[in-house]
């Protein structure tokens, strides 16, 4: 990897022992949950809207979305990559950014993330985003893919698979996934909430629900908890590592129905050797850490929120280090669209881990080697293990 | 404003850069959710009971409520305003306090808060408390008012408005509010919980519920979720900025039914341009920050808890800065009765903001101007905007 | 007490004023919720399994449970007590530990906790654990006991008490408890969840539920919410201080059904003068602090989690100091089996309290005497009061 065009420990050098800092500067990450960057230029309205996970602009018209934790952090860390001073004004940032075409911007930002493996979720508005191959070209390293279970099942319905054949066709689909697919993801939290009956549906149950879905006509949208539970159980039966959207997301979500504790019946029932990855988790990251501690197969990350919390993300990263064994946490940016997010996630995570572990090392609570070992697990080894990235 | 008789950054001068500290020392606040101070002297039992939000005394008889986070902070910050050393003993504090009459005490304490606009909730035991005019006289600046929806509706029933006329009479009431009323508040959390059916009731629904309320006789107490949902929807339809009690309150409350996530169906349904202010929010302030980030009209504060957490409030204030755009948070003390609470809320908020933003500025995460801008929004500009305080 | 073979403020001396540090080093604790240590040697697999509260091993086979917050803290603090350097390797630790017999190990570790009163829960797998007398012999000081309500009731059924006699027999049992029993505990959270109907059952209700329990045959396992509510109400009626398992525990638990807010109907109904102690509470410790502030009889601790969070426990301890009056919090280790846990709980609590209170004293928020008084209450006086340990 090229040296990073920034020092993630600028301003906190005295808080992070050199052995910890150097290790965190150098480690290549596996970003285990990420989307492509935009492959076309944006206007400023589109850019500001993209700074808000909720997809609408929650601030009044006269206030810029730059006036948010994420906005300040982009000015702090990404401005220097565009040739500006850290914390250059929003106007200067926008002007400098506008001088790049989409590809150069992606090369400059995504390429500075220090990520060598991108585990890409291709299930959502994939056509305005870089493909996994394009992302890997911009960012360096390689890409693998995660298939979205709801999209897969909707695709079968769209292609005319009847209610009687749906269960078997879905199983065939899972068995025939291409080699670059290393896992599956469910967005049950967006579709029906996680507080559903997680018992395994029979093929007859699937038939009845699928018939209703067909009757609705039009472009199918999967919200039936029976079909979603079916898809999840089938993925686990195929030993596909399973990602589950948890917590923080956009306003389509009912946040309390995205609490990971709703998954306990599924986790008790599921095979203990098929990894389950709880994504994002904020503000339920302590609950996620508990589940990762209690259940053999559970892992978690605090992606997305790390970016959106900006300078405050170091406390979130510290809280994520509270309970779970170090083998149970993974790194992700959950970057979507803006290439700023691909690199910022990496910077804030390295900085936050350095502040958290650095304090413990300085105080004698941990050895430097403990810190390096935990970093290696979370930065990449755990992801390599659960997705079998050899 | 007169200079404050304390330095909010005493003991932490080296942690808060001067440009941030001076700005936080000087900014005049809008206290957007506050009650009057007591307008008569208290005995010590009454004083100690007032130190507990729960309205009963939760500590054993031989222990003083001074032995609480709030109690220590009053000794720390208010003792010097009464001519004592910081952290003077509880006995010395009580003795000095007793030498003031209610009005002098209010002038001394409320008048040191550095607040120039008091947005006063007059809906609860208003007769033992200073009026908004008296509060503004003691504290300096001006006052405006918030009308409590449940009180307004109960008042109509008490005045003999029949079930058939209640809906229309309530609408007339809202249309005829005096100019000093800048918003409405609901205490649904205390009356029926927030986990109700938030769909908009018809006038027929209101009639049926009102008939039941009349049948109960006596002084009416509004707990019917249909009538409460009606009142809330009517206030929003009148474009009245809406305050909602969330989280921490006294023991009448079921705390989990005061989680702001229960409001999602209402927020989706409500007009996006009428501001909704989530009050207090602890320990659901992260959920509140999420809603403020996701929904155009949602704002929040962490008042009340700032006072009750005392020295620990700086972490709460930091957590409140995690996710929401800076245009979506407001300052409040939620002081009630004790004039100590009117000034302490201001001191602890300034100190907590200084520690939070000061760390980020020292580390280079934020520019000083970013800190000043965020302070101005939260301290007053957001309140001026949502309540149209021109 | 013998001087501790460690300094709990090593590495943080400059953060904790001497007057606070010395007091925290010296205070003898009442460990108000603890179990016996193992009275036989373990093999390494058993030891590593015991490092996980969930009772299974949640990490992959090639990773040691030492790679967890708890594991690092054991190497940090217990290694020196076994003659090793702080943070000696896991292998060296295991080797040194293996050279001790169970009794010597207990004497060495438990005996260094600085606890002079052990309030022992004897209700769970008591036969592989030291008795309260053995624990007191190893640890120094004295022991008293907590009876587990579910175990008591199951014992009556096992001994053949019929459904008609069960209610009265249980009351007789409670009235006849030996003098060393100072309180009762319910594990309702494990048996039926805390979200049950907490109204007081009649003897007829008990009869009907008991008949069903008898019909099940075999070794009875009490999960019926009617019988559990009955047992709890009877204990309160006998004025037995009541411990309630809350929050963090093993995977048998549904964590969200162990939220203390489910207890509100019981707390409103219960006699205000019989102490209720909420145990563990993580990650619901803020909710527990709220209840301790709002309800006269409610107390809480953050035991168990303090050990499992390791170096991160100082933030948990700080959060536990947010809202509750100081008379409402207690110290516990909730150590079970591994004698490391009996001493580590004490060390981490002293260190965490020193960091929390030390910061406030350094900043002038608290006086040193405030810190010492709060420590005395939480370390021992509150436990002496609620359990009448005279």
TrEMBL record, chains A, B, C:
A Pfam family that this protein carries is: Amidohydro_2
> Which branch of life, at top level?
Bacteria
Name the Gene3D superfamilies on file: Metal-dependent hydrolases (3.20.20.140)
InterPro entries annotated for this entry?
A: Amidohydro-rel, Metal_Hydrolase
Domain Amidohydrolase-related per the UniProt entry, residue ranges: 229-389
PANTHER family per record: AMIDOHYDROLASE 2 FAMILY PROTEIN, NODULIN 6
Name of the protein this chain belongs to: Amidohydrolase
Q: Upper lineage ranks?
A: Bacteria, Bacillati, Actinomycetota, Actinomycetes, Propionibacteriales
């Amino acid at each position: 990897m090229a040296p990073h065009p920034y020092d993630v420990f600028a301003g906190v050098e005295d808080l992070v022992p050199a052995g910890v800092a150097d290790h965190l500067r150098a480690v290549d990450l596996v970003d285990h949950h990420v989307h492509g960057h935009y492959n076309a230029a944006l206007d400023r309205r589109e850019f500001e809207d993209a700074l808000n996970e909720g997809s609408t602009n929650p601030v009044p018209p006269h206030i810029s979305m730059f006036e948010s934790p994420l906005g300040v952090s982009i000015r702090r860390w990404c401005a220097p990559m565009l040739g500006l001073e850290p914390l250059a004004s929003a106007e200067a940032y926008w002007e400098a950014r506008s001088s790049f075409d989409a590809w150069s911007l992606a090369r400059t930002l995504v390429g500075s993330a220090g990520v060598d493996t991108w585990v890409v979720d291709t299930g959502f508005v994939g056509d305005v985003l870089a493909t996994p191959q394009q992302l890997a070209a911009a960012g360096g390293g390689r890409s693998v893919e995660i298939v979205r279970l709801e999209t897969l099942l909707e695709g079968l319905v769209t292609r005319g698979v009847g209610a009687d054949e749906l269960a078997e066709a879905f199983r065939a689909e899972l068995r025939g996934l291409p080699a670059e697919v290393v896992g599956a993801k469910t967005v049950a939290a967006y579709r029906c909430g996680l507080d559903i009956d997680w018992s395994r549906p029979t093929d007859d149950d699937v038939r009845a629900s699928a018939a209703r879905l067909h009757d609705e006509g039009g472009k199918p949208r999967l919200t039936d908890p029976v079909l979603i539970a079916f898809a999840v159980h089938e993925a686990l039966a195929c030993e596909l590592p399973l990602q589950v959207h948890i917590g923080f997301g956009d306003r389509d979500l009912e946040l309390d129905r995205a609490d990971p504790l709703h998954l306990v019946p599924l986790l008790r029932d599921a095979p203990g050797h098929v990894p389950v990855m709880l994504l994002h988790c904020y503000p339920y990251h302590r609950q996620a850490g508990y589940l990762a501690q209690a259940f053999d197969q559970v892992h978690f990350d605090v992606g997305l929120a790390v970016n959106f919390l900006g300078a405050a993300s170091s406390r979130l990263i510290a809280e994520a280090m509270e309970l779970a064994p170090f083998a149970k946490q993974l790194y992700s940016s959950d970057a979507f669209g803006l290439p700023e997010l691909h690199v910022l996630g990496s910077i804030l995570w390295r900085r936050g881990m350095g502040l958290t572990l650095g304090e413990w090392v300085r105080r004698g609570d941990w050895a430097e080697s403990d810190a390096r070992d935990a970093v290696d697990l979370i930065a990449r080894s755990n992801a390599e293990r659960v997705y079998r990235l050899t």
